[in-house]
Structures are given as structure tokens and as C-alpha cells.
Amino acid sequence: MKQDPCPLCESVTTEFYMSATNRDYFQCKNCKLIFVPKTFLLEKNEEKKRYDFHENNIDDPRYIAFLSQLYQPLLDRIELGSEGLDFGSGPEPVLAQLFEREGYKMWIYDPFYANNPEVFKEKYNFITLSEVAEHLYNPAQEFNRLVSLLKQKGYLAIMTSLTDTVLDFSDWHYQKDETHVCFYAVESMGYLAKKYHLSLEVLSDKVVIFQKK
Hints:
This protein has 213 residues and is an alpha/beta fold. The protein has a single domain, classed as Vaccinia Virus protein VP39 (Rossmann fold, 3-Layer(aba) Sandwich), CATH 3.40.50. It has 5 helices and 10 strands; from the N terminus they run βββααβαββαββαββ. It has helices at residues 44-51, 61-75, 94-101, 139-148, 186-196, and strands at 14-20, 23-28, 34-35, 83-87, 105-109, 124-130, 150-159, 182-183, 198-202, 207-212. The protein has a 6-stranded mixed β-sheet, sandwiched between helices. Strands 1-2-3-8 form a 4-stranded antiparallel β-sheet, with no helix packed on it. β1 and β2 form a beta hairpin. The radius of gyration is 17 Å and the shape is globular. The N and C termini lie far apart (41 Å).
């Protein structure tokens, strides 16, 4: 069985993890990322079809409560007047709208719905990835770019379900979504912190916040 290198740390020390939901999964021995090999990745048009069904909006109190897991801790850390980028904003950039309501200047980027490469010419006080990291086909490339966009003492805030508390990966609802292709452990986040010289706070099994030292 051909083994893909890890898409996060690019290590070749990966091993077969399991088969589930008509896909194979591998795990990296170095950073503990569980990932879907390239052969199982959706074509971009098929991936977008899944996202087109998302109906998130700022008037949905349940969705706002969900986002508050990321939004509120970051709000407690950033200064008024800070400028942020919501990376992977989706069809409706609700998270960016919440920050704008509080007086923060926001940029948004999404490869399908807000494909504006001009955002990569700016520097930001904070960058958010809300339910985005698990969709990345090339997380190594994306994190390289995102960290380079952070100002000194800037924050990178990520919401994604971590694998550490998952008892049965094969029955985990998160891996059953065909657009979810990378599954991070706390150790995976620790790898990022070490590589980019970031501080790391693990706030829950869904939210981590990095700060550029």
C-alpha cells in the first residue's frame, strides 16, 4: 500500500490507521495527524457542492453560540482596533460580521466564495479558522502562509475537533464528512507551535489559540 507523506509536517513516517466510511486513513508518527490519502480527496467541484448546502447566518442563535467558542476567547485577548482575517469564511462570513459588530476591521478569504488574493498582501493582528483546518488539502502550505501574515504578538485561532478524546474514530461523526480530510491531535498543534515559535493555548477539545512571540 503506497503511503502519502504527512500533509502537515511532510514526514514520510506515516502508517495505515484504518478504513472507514469508504476511505482509508493514515496517521503520522511524527505529529500524530490523521489524514485521508490524496486518492480519496474530492474534486474541487464536488467539494464546493457540499459547502453550497451550508445555511449558516448571523440570525441563527445556535450558530452564534457555536462560534462563540472561538469568538469570545479571542475577543478577550485582542485590542480594540485590531485587524483580522477570517480564513475560510464560507458562503456567509458570520464570524467576520461578529467581529465587525464589535468595531474590528475584517478581511475575509475563501477559495470558493471570497477568492481575493489581495488579502495575502496584508498583515493581521489575528487570523481565524473556524471549522476550516480539517478541510485543508495542503495544511503545511496554508499554515506557512498564515503565520507569515501575522503581526508580532498576533493570534492564530483555530476551531476544529481534536482527536484526543475520540473513543471510536470509525464511528466519529466528524470523519464521516467527506470534506473533512485532516484530523489534528493536541500533539499536531504542538508541532505547529514548535515549528513557528508560537505559544499555544488549548482551550478545549475544539479550540486552540496560538500567539506569535
